[in-house]
Write a structure and sequence with these properties.
The protein has 258 residues and is of the alpha/beta class. It has 8 helices and 9 strands. The N and C termini lie far apart (38 Å).
Length: 258
C-alpha cells in the first residue's frame, strides 16, 4: 500500500458491484489509500480475486456476496461488513447492468427487461443505500457515493429506455437523500461516468466501427478508464469534499458539454 497517500486510513467502506470494472478499480484504490473494504457482488469467486489483489498489496478486504436486487442478501452483506469492521464510514453504490441487445424503445420494450434493469440499477442502489446508511447513522456520519450515467441528464443512450430511466432516477434519489441526511452528518453525492472502458462496454470496445462512433461524440475522443472514475469517487468520499453534497460529478471526457 502507498504510505504517502493515506486519506482513508482506518475508514470502513462497502462497495457494491465490486467484482469488476469501476467497482473493482474503486475498491483497489480505497485499499491503496488505507481503507478497509467490503466487497459486494453476486459472484464470490470474482470477489475473492479482487480481495486477493488487495491482500497481496498489503490491504484489507472482506468478501460479502449478495444479489443487490434481493433485500435479505443486501442486508446480510452490509451487516456482515459492519460486524467485520466494527461499523461503516463510506457507502459506494455502484452495481448496475446495461442490456444493449434487449433494452429498446418503450413501444417494443419487454416488461421483464424493464424490470430487470430497474431492479438492479435503481432498486439495487436503493437497497445498498438503505442498509448502508443505517450503519453510517450508527457511526455518527459518513459519505455515500452513488454511480449514475450521463443518460440521466440527456437521452443519448438511444433505444435503451429502461437504462436511461434508471439512471435519471438515481440522480433524483441522490439529491433528496443529500438534503435529508446532511443533518445526520452524512454527505450524499454521485459520480457520473460516461463511456468507460469496462466489461460492460466490451461489445463497443471490440467493434472498431462502433468504438469510433462513440468516441466521435466525446470531445476527448477516447473512452475513460475505471481508474479515472475511481479517482472521482474517492474524492467525493474524502474529507477533501467536506463541503460537497447533493452534487453529481461528471467523468465523461466532455460528452455532456459537447
Amino acid at each position: 500500500m502507498n504510505e504517502d497517500v493515506r486519506r482513508f486510513a482506518g475508514k470502513r467502506v462497502v462497495i457494491s458491484g465490486a467484482s469488476k470494472g469501476i467497482g473493482r478499480a474503486t475498491a483497489i484504490r480505497f485499499a491503496c489509500e488505507g481503507a478497509r473494504v467490503a466487497l459486494v457482488a453476486r459472484t464470490r469467486q470474482a470477489l475473492e480475486e479482487v480481495a486477493a489483489t488487495i491482500s497481496e498489496a498489503g490491504g484489507e478486504a472482506f468478501v460479502a456476496p449478495a444479489d443487490v436486487t434481493q433485500e435479505d442478501q443486501v442486508e446480510a452483506a452490509v451487516l456482515a461488513a459492519a460486524k467485520e469492521w466494527g461499523g461503516l464510514d463510506i457507502v459506494v453504490s455502484n452495481a448496475g447492468i446495461e442490456l444493449p441487445f434487449e433494452d429498446t424503445r418503450v413501444d417494443q420494450l419487454d416488461l421483464a427487461v424493464w424490470q430487470r434493469v430497474i431492479n438492479t440499477n435503481l432498486t439495487g442502489q436503493f437497497l445498498i443505500c438503505k442498509h448502508g446508511v443505517r450503519q453510517l447513522l450508527k457511526s455518527g456520519g459518513g459519505a455515500v457515493v452513488m454511480v449514475g450515467s450521463p443518460c440521466g441528464y440527456r437521452g443519448f443512450c438511444f433505444h435503451e429506455h429502461a437504462y436511461t430511466a434508471s439512471k435519471g432516477a438515481i440522480l433524483s434519489l441522490m439529491q433528496v437523500m443529500a438534503v435529508d441526511y446532511i443533518k445526520d452528518n452524512i454527505r450524499v453525492n454521485a459520480c457520473i461516468p460516461g463511456f468507460i472502458d469496462t466489461p460492460m462496454n466490451a461489445h463497443v470496445m471490440e467493434d472498431a466501427g462502433l468504438l469510433e462512433h462513440w468516441c466521435s461524440s466525446i470531445p476527448m475522443r477516447r473512452p475513460g478508464t475505471a481508474e479515472e472514475t475511481a479517482a472521482v469517487i474517492l474524492f467525493l468520499a474524502s474529507d477533501e469534499a467536506s463541503y460537497v453534497m447533493g452534487s453529481a460529478y461528471v467523468v465523461d471526457g466532455g460528452q455532456l458539454a459537447g
